[in-house]
């Protein structure tokens, strides 16, 4: 860790102030991720609440499609709030995003279910997810840039990795809140009304975070370029209308964030959905497995972030993508064995049913392939499942720990917020966010429980090739040179 004197000399920011900035930014960003992911963490419960009864397959896929809407609009939030962040300031943009996210999440806690309100319920849910996606599209870029523009050039991977922890921490906190709520009441009460509590209490967390953020000052680099009249008057045009910068955006997308997105969502969210909906591990047990794996892996975000300051960002990220491609199928086969529930395939009515366990089809169409164990997994090997998910989250740490520092270093300060936000949110919101929906649909459509892995493996392979050939190493970039901060 750099000494206080070194930090002041290189970045102009005392080290105690850096940690205050990291804390303020991380708390708010973690709460936004919590708000965004609480929706996905409750998929097994809420899918049957917000859609017509009688067809569980339709309910799950419709719910995951609604979940995916929040991801699809994130790039639009990135453009809208990125422009504000480059025009007005980083602080103002992520104050607005936090307010929108907190209000939208609170509304889900108040929303009537399908049985009470009919189609008003799922339609309103989609609109709320749009608001959540727009808000998160603006939040991440602001937090990453804000922290990066306070810290020394030679410690950027280490310091920004604390922002990277917030996404996994938000998912972890959502699982813990759900588990504690479930523990405090009967299963019937949780299904009837208890699921609302995790959404409603988020308003308390948001209020605290807003109070903290209101006391923060603008980033020193943005303040300097604004004072010097160096800010962009047309961030969108400057970011995407000039080939030199657009090329950086495209390379960052296909050579970094697309692969990072699918690795992140496979290792954490798809693993959760796979346990709950395909292997039929008890919902509470599946949440505990994921929560323990996330808790054990979280320190590795900072480890790989700090390591990227020493050896570079590029090949850590590429290595994670390659490992994912090579090992996902063996890992998920091992998860099936550890769950102790023999999932079999049901193909068309003309074909044989294979395997040892009888099934209840996920669909009423006799021609469509389907898979689902008829009963809950009786005795899953929890330690082994924790280890297998932990292994996947290590890949997440390898690619996600250094990526904020890479993105900040790839773009100039005057269009940094706009430029990095778009590839990040297309990579995560589109390539990554659609993964649970594509994965579970692929399993149901083919009758092959491993079919959901082909999509992330293809995208991660693409990123490894594009990134390996075209991605530039950035860990030696001196962003403080733009404002004369390096002596």
Description of the structure:
This protein has 487 residues and is an all-alpha fold. It has one domain: Up-down Bundle (Growth Hormone, Chain: A). The longest helix has 36 residues. The protein starts with a helix and ends in a 17-residue tail after the last helix.
List the main descriptive attributes of the protein structure presented here.
Growth Hormone, Chain: A; 487 residues; single chain; 23 helices; globular; disordered N terminus
Short structural summary:
This protein is mainly alpha-helical and 487 residues long.
Mean pLDDT: 84
Would you identify the regions where 5 or more consecutive residues have pLDDT less than 50? Answer: 1-10, 344-374
Helix and strand element order: HHHHHHHHHHHHHHHHHHHHHHH
Here the CATH topology equals Growth Hormone, Chain: A
| Global shape | globular
What's the architecture, going by CATH? Answer: Up-down Bundle
CATH class: Mainly Alpha
Number of extended strands = 0
Number of domains: 1
By DSSP (H or I, 4+ residues per run), the number of helices equals 23
The structural class is: mainly alpha
The rounded Rg comes to: 22 Å
| Beta-strand residue percentage | under 5%
Q: How far from one another are the termini?
A: 19 Å
The CATH H-level superfamily is MFS general substrate transporter like domains
In which range does the helix fraction lie?
over 70%
Main β-sheet description: none
